[in-house]
Specification:
Elements lengths: L1 E6 L7 H15 L3 E6 L11 H5 L12 H9 L2 E8 L6 H10 L6 E4 L2 E4 L6 E8 L3 H6 L3 H14 L6 E5 L7 H16 L2
Parallel strand pairs: 1-2, 1-3, 3-6, 6-7
Antiparallel strand pairs: 4-5
Helix pairs in contact: 1-7
GO molecular function: NAD(P)H dehydrogenase (quinone) activity
Family: Belongs to the NAD(P)H dehydrogenase (quinone) family.
Protein name: NAD(P)H-dependent oxidoreductase
Amino acid sequence: MRVLVLHSHPVEESYGKALYRQTVESLQKAGHMVDACDLYAEQFDPVLSRHDRLVYHDYPENLKLVGSYVERLKAAEGLVICSPIWNFGFPAILKGYFDRVWLPGVSFELVNGKVESRLRHIRKLAAVLTYGATPFRAFAAGNPPKKIVKRVLRAQINPVRPVTFLAHYDMNNCTPETRAKFLARVGGAMERF
């Protein structure tokens, strides 16, 4: 299966980057073809410009500035998001990816006033996330990233398939042991993806 891995951590020597590497290596070990998309390394521009917004609904005009990313998304049969969570949300670069690439005609289409998914070719979805917050604080805040992955993205891709959701909470108080345990958990989950 061809798997698109979206990564959004700017620091090269970070735990987030180690999770990304583990994700990619484990998917490859399982025999998947991996399209490793490191948004910072690729210098993805997350800004939805005035022009982008004006042509947002004009397919295929809306693809001109993000065509290569659209092609990668269309080729994917699996999607893995590997990202830190900042202030109970995705980093701006990842949010900008969704705003600029998941366009009308690409991820959805309006048909008789109803949204129809164009991402049914993606058969599997996973998220590998790190939070500074504890599980309770994330729960108390409504855990928006978890809802986006398990509800919004899942509905766009395939609402009846399970989602692999892996989160290391309380990174502010983590230890080498908790990080190693989570890294191994991610490796195992990606080998079974």
